[in-house]
Amino acid sequence: MVRSALVASQLIAAAAAVRPFVNEPDTGLQDFLFSTNYTEGTLPPLRDMRGLPDFDYAARQVLDGQMYSFYRTAAAGEWSYRNNLEIWEKVKFRPHQLAGHEGLNETMGVSILGYNFSAPFFISPATRAAYGDPERAEINFVDAAAEADILYVSALYASKSIEEIGEAKRAHNNTLNGPQVTFQQIYSNANLSVTWDAIARAEAQNAKAIVWTIDAPGSSTRHRAARYDTTNANSVTSYLTWDLYEEMKNHTTLPIILKGITTVEDALTAVERGVPAIWLSNHGARQVDHSPSPLEIAYEIYRNAPQVFSQVEVLADSGVRYGSDVLKLLALGVKAVGLGRPFMYSNVYGLEGPQKVIQILKSEILQDAAQIGITDLSNIDPKRLNMRALESTVYLADDHDTIMQAVRLHRTAADGTKYSVSNPAPPAALVFEHKVPLPQLTAPGQVLVLVHASTVTRDELTWPESYATDFPILGHDLAGVVVATYDGTSGFKPGDEVYGMVGQEAGCSWAQYVVAEDRELALKPKGLSWTESAAVAMNGLTAWQALFEKAKFPEPDFSAVDKNCVMQQRTLLVTGAAGMVGTWIVQLARLAGIPVTAATSSNARNAAFLKSLGAYKTIEYAELGASSTKYDAIIDTAGGEPQARCWDVVADDGILISVDSGSFGIADNKPLGKEHVEALFFIVQISGAQMARLTPALEAGLVETFVSEVYPLAEARTAYERASGRLEKRGKVVLSIEA
Q1: Which residues cross the membrane (predicted)?
Q2: Which secondary structure element, helix H or strand E, spans residue 707, and what is its range?
Q3: Which of 80, 247, 574, 676 sits in a 20 to 30 Å window from 348, CA-based?
């Protein structure tokens, strides 16, 4: 018997070494309590609750077996429950020292669906709070959330009704959002009229979003719950389909958050369907055993489709107990993190319980962030984490994290013909490919941009830089979202919507991703679409530099241009005024108070349009030779015969600037008598700073960008052919690029 007991104790010890805890780790709470006058089975003093796991122990002391089991239960053998708690150990921090943390507290706030909160965590929906506090139940969560300015998501099957919770929150009108903001969780009932009624009730109580739990199609296998005869809160649900989501949207004007996303495929589908926010969750491991934890789900998305985090707001919950847990999810791209069980356990203390949970978690987040060297909680570099240990636990698509779709120029034809500047490639040499290596960040100040749109420029296949590498990617203009930065050194952060122009060395923009430098980008104008934004850079920068750098006209003050636009004395002529660069020059000249004459091949076709842009007057090329007007500055975008006629009308001490690609030698070919004319050709220079100067004019509607036709990336060859011909509609040909 003694030997059997010894063997048994050894087996127990061995098992404990493999799984050191079933609920939470031992941080000395019980030893401390029993060293005082504490009596087991009574509520420990709130002051002794030092971490969120302590509240589990406290609740277990005062709740009966059935009540505690309802909160604690998980699916089947509860492997996922344990994994939710233990998985965090697989991700190690990489603390950076001497980073400083001044102002860290000011970065704690977060915006969720446009509403502001003081911290990147919230109270998740959980039912039967009356077990902890029979009188106030969920009202404690309403009050604690309002006081701390965090989000509370109320549960459909809460102890308090939707109306009672609505009444409670009406007492709170001085939060960061004014009146308190709450979201309402729902299940879809088999009788959908019940669901529509719940949504209507939530709207009537001024809920600001619907959280639809999609991972509970029915009752689940819960052995612990069955032992104590607890019931599921949601035992009658409807068939859960994407069609039902579309139907649900027809029954509410509120945004619908999908709670229970567990795979990258479902996350991508949610993005495709325009879901405003997704919630990574395995339902606290209560629905199906061996389901992934939120950390694993977030990592799966991060590795397979990182763009998701910039395309949709991502929330997460399940198994979060520490500030460090929150930081790990934030670093992967999650916007805010929910907690359920800790708040339910804390409710045994009444209002002071959830208040203490919030205080502890805020403190841990700040303390841990400072230790790790995080200086901005809204922009945590994923490189602060060592996540390699997760690779064996999550699904990784073959090569998905290292490849992208792009259009590349094949410089060698099937018959062996070599293409070059002297023998330009035809559009047929542009090939849409599915497995192009993803560009890598290699230097400070670089960002990885998920490209949403790029433009097609005629004659780009004749440019020398198009033949700089064996399989070059064309395209320079772009609009997209920053998804990663090099070691956190960029002035931009993941999630920033940007636009700009990149150089050939970056790999260029006819691709799903491009590496860009800070100096090449600016924040995208609010109110402009991706395609409109992509059409700005090359043309807008060319016009800006021609007017304000080369011709040296004073830059406009966009804040005062509508109030007092003083007409300048110097005169300006623009050739190709109805073209893509010309329209920008005319508009910017108007804003700068420059009397601009717009030269065009046909007044009948273009005069009214050019005057609507701000042209002082219009003139046809054929009329230039007979004109007696001499212009102080001429910007030529047409080349050829129109440029030749410009010499007749440029002032003897004026300036003639050409951006036509065939005018490289213009300064060496001055006609007799025009020796004192400054003549120059220039190629646009990349400048994110100048893009930023254009942004206010675009946001205010002072200038317009024109898009002629839009093609998917796979049809880049057709798009190039169209851009090289005469377009029926004015503007750029744009490629729309999907992730």
Answers
A1: none
A2: strand 707-712
A3: 80
How do residues 531-550 score in pLDDT, each as one tens digit?
999 999 999 999 999 999 99
Q: Which CATH number is associated with domain 29-150+218-230+253-392?
A: 3.20.20.70
DSSP string, 703-731: S---EEEEEEGGGHHHHHHHHTS--SSSS
- DSSP characters over 515-533: EEEGGGEEEPPTT--HHHH
Burial class (CB within 10 angstroms; exposed 0-12, middle 13-18, buried 19+) of 31: exposed
| Better pLDDT: 340 or 415 | 340
Give, as one character, the DSSP assignment of residue 730.
Answer: S
pLDDT in tens, 679-693: 899 999 999 999 999
> Is residue 461 within 8 Å of residue 720, measured between CB atoms?
yes
Q: How is the chain split into domains, by residue range? A: 29-150+218-230+253-392, 403-536+710-722, 551-681
Residue type, 35: S
Q: Give the Cα separation of 139 and 165 in Å (integer).
A: 7
Amino acid at 12: I
CATH level 3 topology of 551-681 = Rossmann fold (3.40.50)
The answer, yes or no, to whether residue 627 has pLDDT greater than 80, is: no
* Nearest alpha carbon to residue 320 among 334, 302, 310: 334
Asked if residues 460 and 421 have their Cβ atoms less than 8 Å apart, the reply is no
What does DSSP assign to residue 26? -
- Nearest-5° Cα angle at 726, 725 to 731: 105
**Helix, coil or strand: residue 429:** helix
Task: Give the pairing type, strands 430-437 and 92-93.
Answer: unpaired
Structure tokens at 511: 């691709």
CATH assignment of 403-536+710-722? 3.90.180.10
CA distance 661 to 573: 19
pLDDT of residue 18: 40
pLDDT band at 282 (very low <50, low <70, confident <90, very high): very high
692 φ/ψ angles, rounded to the nearest 5 degrees = -65, -30
pLDDT higher at 382 or 45: 45
Residue with tokens 């002082």: 616
- Residue 485 confidence class, pLDDT cut points 50, 70, 90: confident
How far apart CA 165 and CA 63 sit, in angstroms, is 24
Confidence of residue 398 (pLDDT cuts 50, 70, 90): low
